[in-house]
Amino acid sequence: MTPLLALLSGLIFGVGLIASGMSDPAKVLGFLDLAGSWDPSLALVMAGAIGVARLPFAWALKQPRSWLGHPMPPTPLQTIDRSLIAGSAVFGVGWGLSGFCPGPGIVSLGAGYLPGVVFTVAMVAGMKVCEWSAE
């Protein structure tokens, strides 16, 4: 049952990314181009997503177990350290240069969109390098 729910959740998420325009690098770059022809529509998408997820997320944080019976992970630490700042900078630079972040990058794999495939391969390679360097 869990793999089926994971697949269904991923499909719903992917359809949402496509429908909202988040999987279109040109739209994302238009949103990030504050000095040029800024397209604020993705801000509305993000605000809507936060609004929809806010109450269920707050409820889930108070539960000892997930709907599938798994223990809920502890709330992450609230400290801001060098790793968080460096990771945020790398994420932002990658998003700004490519127009992709992880979710839309994975969606682009299904579409066979070459720039998205290159981004996703580079992202996975970066994750592996990070894992390797942390050992």
Could you provide a short overview of the structure?
Pfam families: DUF6691. It is built from 6 helices and no strands.
Order of helices and strands: HHHHHH
Shape type? globular
Radius of gyration: 17 Å
Could you report the average pLDDT, rounded to the nearest whole number? 89
Q: Outline the biggest β-sheet.
A: none
Structural class designation: mainly alpha
Task: Kindly state the percentage of residues in helix.
Answer: over 70%
Low-confidence stretches: none
Question: What is the count of structural domains?
Answer: 1
| Cα end-to-end separation | 34 Å
Number of helices: 6
**Beta-strand share of residues:** under 5%
Give a count of the beta strands, DSSP E runs of length 2 or more. Answer: 0
Description:
With 135 residues, this protein is mainly alpha-helical. The chain has one domain (2-134). It has six helices and no strands. The protein starts with a helix and ends with a helix. 10% of the residues are buried.
Summarize this structure as a short list of keywords or feature phrases.
mainly alpha, 135 residues, 71% helix, single chain
What layout of secondary structure does this protein have?
Elements lengths: L1 H19 L4 H8 L8 H21 L20 H17 L3 H10 L2 H21 L1
Helix pairs in contact: 2-4, 5-6
